[in-house]
């Protein structure tokens, strides 16, 4: 097994070989709606919300997302023809066919977010986690037009030391738990199969900003536009293509008073022809084909010249 200190390769963005995007675009933008399932009675030992279990307030608030908020967000996604990479609790594929079929009709890419958001991977044995990925791919191929899953944001952003190695054994190529960079980065695996980190965001994310910290819709739009504008400027200055992820949740962004904010952000993205509006899977595919080897070689050479850290 490869240890996590060896899994990461360090190289500062200054001095890296250049990463470029298709069509000469400067910035890659991907929308990650988190369509989640919450157990009314979570597995033993998992506490979410105010009380042990069940917590009706917590459950019902999130259930609003799949009943109403998702459908409001879809109208905005459709208005701007916004491709989306859904961070999906995979039980939704079987248990909520209306949501599944709406995503499939729009050709959304499925990124695993576990089976349920209250079933984290912490503490899984190798065998248990291996079975989890086998079940994940089976759910996708059975209920999502035979499509296999290419990436994962762990349920509750959880994982184990085996996670990366098992992901590639089950055909995945990107992992969104690593929010450590503005570009995809190689993650070494025990088999040598290629896996990259995919820039996700806790800073352009409606749950921490709008739900937990009570930012206003106007502040959220301002932060998103500032993030995009600054990364466009930095990318044009140093030639390094960067990535922006907008992470949303239907139980938050699907609220009536916040829908306008999502539309304003999408309008700004669509109005700038320097932005590659795409999916996480396409970003990973492009990076692996065109940049992975060069970036890994550069980082390895840099590591040989520096003290161990």
From TrEMBL:
One of its GO terms (biological process) is carbohydrate metabolic process. This is Polysaccharide deacetylase family protein. InterPro entries: Glyco_hydro/deAcase_b/a-brl (IPR011330).
